[in-house]
Amino acid sequence: MLVLFRTQGQDWDRFQKTLDRNRDRIEGMGCVRIEAYRNRKHPEEWVMLQEWPDKPTFDAFAKETGPALDREGGVRWTDVSTWVEG
Question: What is the pTM assigned to this prediction?
């Protein structure tokens, strides 16, 4: 299952450092892929892609750990969508 996050952020370095510091923790909870990007023409627009084995595994992460890392990274996602193979 893919989870796509979108937002307009202000401190990319803070977000990126938080993500880098916690990558092992996130992967340890079951995430198999994490990618984050800034829009080339509008660097305040960010997306993050995570791949999870299933919705229950992602939901366990999203219950507390995800929001705590969002606060640490200074990000508030404006859109979060989940995608499954079709």
Answer: 0.92
